[in-house]
Structures are given as C-alpha cells and as structure tokens.
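Lecture notes, unit on protein representations.

Consider one protein chain, 290 amino acids long.
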Amino acid sequence: MLRQFFEHKIVRLILEFIGIGAGAVIAAFAIEEFLVPNTILDGGVVGISIMVSNLTKLPLAVLTVALNLPFLLLGTRKMGKLFIAKSAFAMAVFAGFLQIFEPLRNATEEYLLAVCFGGVLLGLGVGLVIRCGGCLDGTETVAIMLNKRFKLPVGRVVLAFNVVIFVVAGFLFGFDRAMYSLLTYFITSKVLDVVENGIDQTKAAMIITNDAKEISEQIFQKLGRTVTLMEGEGLVSGKKTVLYCVLTRFEIHELREIIDNVDSSAFIAISDVSEIIGTHIKKPGILDQD
C-alpha cells in the first residue's frame, strides 16, 4: 500500500519537486559559504555570474536568474514543459537561497577545505536536481539539447564550456584561482556521478507491455529513439511484446512518463551499456550511433 502511494504520479511529482528544492538549497550553500568567499568559481552560467558579480558588485542571485533566463526560454520548445518548469523552480530556489546565505559567516577561509567541501556539496546538490528531472544551469540545458539533436555527450559539452570559463577566470583573478576552480569542478563531477549514477552514461531499457505499438511510437516521437520489438511469453501472464531501446540517463525520466501515460502496468528493466557497436536511424534522415 505504501509503495503504491509513492508510485502514484502526483505524489512522485511532488517528491521530485521536493528533491529539486533540497538540491538547489545545498548547491546555493556550497556556492555562498565555500566558493564565492574564496574566489573559487563554479562552471557554467553560475561561474559567469560569480565573475561578473566580483567585477561589478552586482548581487549574485540577480545575475544567476538574469543569465539563466535566456537559456530557459531557448529550451522551452525543445525540452518539454515539465522539464522547463522543474528547471525554473530549481533556479528560483537556488537564487533565493543565494541571497539568504550571503550574509552568513563564511564556512572556511582555507582554500583546500573550500575546494573539497564546496565541491562535494555542490555535486550533491546538482546531482539531486538532475536525478529528479530538473536542471540548475543554463549550459546544462544547451548541452542536453545538443545531445538530443547531434548526440554530443552532455558531459563533454559542459566540460568544453567550463574550460573556456576557467581560462577567462585565470586571466581575471589569477591562474591559481582557475586551478582551484578546475579542481572543484572535477570533485563536483565525481560526486554528481555518484548521486546521478552517470548523467552521460548510455542505458538500455527493456519494456514488457501489452501496448507495444503506442509506447514505441511515443518513444520515437518524444525521444527520437528507435525500438526493437520482440515476442515474449510470461510463465503466468502469457504472450507479451518486449521492447528494447538504448537511451541516455537524461532520457530515462521521460521514458517513465511515457510508460505511465500509456501502460502503467508495464515492466521496465534499465541496465548499463558499456559499449555500442553499429548505427541506427534516430530520426528520419539522421544517422545516429546509439
């Protein structure tokens, strides 16, 4: 009974928003109490906001919202309303708690402690947000869009953005700060991987359902993924259709939404994929390696 309660769509959505809010609060604490006081940068839009705030003395919370807003608007049509709603909520909570934490006493003035603890807490916060289907930084939204369109790995796109930001930070604040920032980024990434279990990792989904045609069409239309259909037979349930598709970690949440809307009784098994050989048609006219 309790399990059915937590699996209910509305309850699960509420829990996801609670998780996103908690992750945003943790990330804001890491930024304001560990990184900003020691001029250590985060990556992405937040990192740019920290640089601009240091140079102009404008409030970090205001800059974070202002610089993230164009990315949210850019992703509205491509990413889906729920993803944008969750991301907007995450960014609003994040900005609000940046303002709340700003007047508090800094956690430490030791650079190494700031890098380690700030990186761990930031990875935990961002990982919670992503795990619950949201996004805390505009560059992540762009990276996910590029992944959907060109199959560019999310992690590598974000890394490319951040390398440029850290190089600029080196010229502005000294290359020791850039190196501290880069070290923080790698710690954050590792913790985020643990929380999210690999945001850029390829996954395989096996779906056993009675509504194979509708689910496979929805997967193709919404995720751009082709599906292999196989006939199966359950010991108790009888003849079933088994769907097999390969997708990214970011798409698993959307896959669950599709299954819930079409056949909530379907059985889904998600597994890691270590290597893929071969190609398939992702969208009409686009050849993609899955």
